[in-house]
Amino acid sequence: MKKYNVAVVGATGAVGNEMIRMLEERDFPVASLRLVASSRSIGKKLKYKGQAALVEELTKDSFKGVEIALFSAGGAISKEFAPVAAGAGVFVIDNSSAWRMDKDVPLVVPEVNPHDLKKEKKIIANPNCSTIQLVVVLKPIHAAAKIKRVVVSTYQAVSGAGHKAMVELAEQVKSLAKGGPAEYKVFPYQIAYNVIPQIDVFLDNDYTREEMKMVLETQKIMGDDSIQVTATAVRVPVMRGHSESVNIETEKHLTAVAAKKMLAQAPGVILIDDPANKKYPLALDCAGKIETFVGRIRQDESIKNGLNLWIVSDNLLKGAAWNAVQIAEELVKQKIV
Questions:
Q1: What are the residue numbers of the active site?
Q2: Most CB atoms closer than 10 Å: which of 67, 137, 156, 164?
Q3: Superfamily name with CATH number, domain 131-315
């Protein structure tokens, strides 16, 4: 099997670390691995397949000889360096929001739209974490019954806001347990023992940017602007794993039983749905796993063709690192790279 020269940009971050781990666990055909980050991380060593790999500073020369680059270094870095890498013939898989809504850039979830990958499209966008797990479940339902409308409320883990957010939650819990204050910098309010109905900034329509990402990205990935989507994104005091309450209205009638059978066979999906025995997806159980989990599937009795579902996935894996590596695998599988 052919092997590839791979770079991970933003290698020292939480998602970058997971990208490296996914490359190793999936035994991706890596000929050489270049770990790249900002100047602050020069000289750091990260492990890959039992060996210590030195982190290099990101420059415009970082992509010489590279064939695939996984980016997780933020939108500003992606805007500057992704075109540089692409211009050098590198396939860039970018985890930021910088390129997602660019009409010339594929926005890809391999279970949903692998056909959008093209040899001439060197920059590929990795969707928003909460959108990825949603569309993996929507795809088979849409194919069977055509989705008209989706109402989604997310319950998103603090890891979606980065390592500092995880530390902030842990420190607040420790301090509160000792009767101390809950200091906060990452979030606008205390997150420990609280729920914050804001992720990202508010826009002119009073939705947050995170909510509108879900609307626009879902339509683009599904390739159907007729699907109406509305979202409420909420931060919860969970370390890892996003959960979503989803209401779907379809054109054709689809029973909950039929939906369960369909989703049990859907790629990348694991069905956990046994309410009699209190079996349903939990963020705690799904953390560290690459699949998307679905349960609590039931008929919406308030409308003719409606379903309610509960979806959970690890936001650092399927929501970021694993989806990126999965795209790289798809490039290899389709012989695009």
A1: 129, 242
A2: 137
A3: Dihydrodipicolinate Reductase; domain 2 (3.30.360.10)
